[in-house]
Automatic annotation (TrEMBL):
Origin: domain of life: Bacteria
Disulfide bond listed as a keyword: no
GO molecular function: acyltransferase activity, transferring groups other than amino-acyl groups
The entry's keywords: Acyltransferase, Ribonucleoprotein, Ribosomal protein, Transferase
Cellular component per GO, a single term: ribosome
Annotated TM spans: none
N-acetyltransferase domain ranges (all copies): 153-293
One family name in Pfam for this protein: Acetyltransf_1
Entry-linked SUPFAM superfamilies: Acyl-CoA N-acyltransferases (Nat)
Protein name as catalogued: Ribosomal protein S18 acetylase RimI-like enzyme
InterPro entries: Acyl_CoA_acyltransferase (IPR016181), GNAT_dom (IPR000182), YpeA/RimI_acetyltransf (IPR050680)
């Protein structure tokens, strides 16, 4: 048994992970996929991927998504015939040792509701349910994007001189602290496969959103409108412009995520043609309370 740790996976490692993922998805009837882009983690040096090999075969893995110091999102797969051997526990111990170096406060475990083995692990960990996140996919054929009359909102790809304005918007919309907002936005600027949008009325910045680009796909995240402009059709108009821009870039497969506590955003996305594809339950636990009897 060998455990390997990475801050950034190679293409070869990603292929190994996707192979394990496919087997687990078929066995457990799962719909989601592990997010393997580590470029948005708050620290580029932090180890966020832990792989366990048996006879040079990848059999178990733990992945962490860590955009801020507040929490690390944990996703995991273990091949069916290698389960209940303590492999996940060994990997989780290694992950906890890593995040302890960076004073990360919480672990958030991601589990699809239909995963019986996943739910069994959550129960053993005594992690507490936090919220459900919905994964939605854009369906152009049911697009209900007729925008109500509003003052003209413009969309542009943000530039580095927009940094402070974007940080202010992030604080207003998402209640992010200054340093976390700054770190995430700078990483979007630096990434080759991300677009950072900003929405404007006249010259006033009122909204923001980002998109992560794949071959023919795109995932929208960090989308929102300043509270004083919410409920007036601006969010809907801005989302339409983002969708149009992504389709013009050749991305027809467009997704977005929203948690169950944000009913306004959830309803907006559904009205704009997004359909729920799957859901993920999130469970929270302090790392220093794990594995205690």
């Amino acid at each position: 048994m060998v455990i390997k740790k990475f801050s950034e996976p190679s293409e070869e490692i990603i292929k190994e992970i996707r192979k394990v993922e496919l087997i687990c998805k078929e066995h457990d009837k799962l719909n989601g996929s592990i997010f393997l882009d580590t470029s948005i983690n708050f620290n580029s040096e932090i180890k966020s991927l832990f792989l366990l090999y048996d006879s040079n075969i990848l059999v178990s893995l733990v992945s962490m998504f860590i955009p801020t110091r507040d929490e690390a999102e944990i996703s995991a797969y273990t091949l069916p015939k290698y389960r209940r051997k303590g492999y996940f526990k060994k990997l989780l111990h290694e992950a906890i040792k890593e995040i302890t170096k960076y004073n990360i406060l919480d672990l958030v475990f991601v589990c699809e509701p239909q995963s019986n083995d996943g739910n069994e692990v959550i129960e053993k960990l005594k992690a507490e349910f936090d919220f459900t996140e919905y994964f939605l996919r854009y369906n152009d054929s049911v697009d209900d994007m007729e925008v109500r009359p509003t003052p003209e909102i413009k969309l542009k790809e943000a530039e580095k001189e927009d940094l402070e304005s974007l940080i202010n918007l992030s604080q207003e919309i998402f209640n992010d602290n200054y340093e976390d907002a700054k770190s995430m936005i700078i990483k979007s600027f630096e990434s080759e496969n991300r677009i950072q949008y900003i929405g404007m009325i006249d010259k006033k910045h009122i909204g923001m959103g980002s998109a992560s680009l794949g071959n023919d796909e795109a995932s929208i995240f960090g989308f929102g409108v300043s509270p004083q402009y919410q409920g007036k059709g601006f969010g809907r108009a801005m989302l339409k412009r983002i969708l149009t821009d992504l389709k013009n870039r050749g991305r027809e497969n467009i997704t977005i995520e929203v948690d169950s506590t944000n009913k306004n955003a959830f309803n907006l996305y559904k009205k704009c043609g997004f359909k729920v594809e799957t859901s993920f339950d999130y469970y929270r636990k302090r790392p220093d309370f794990l594995f205690q009897s």
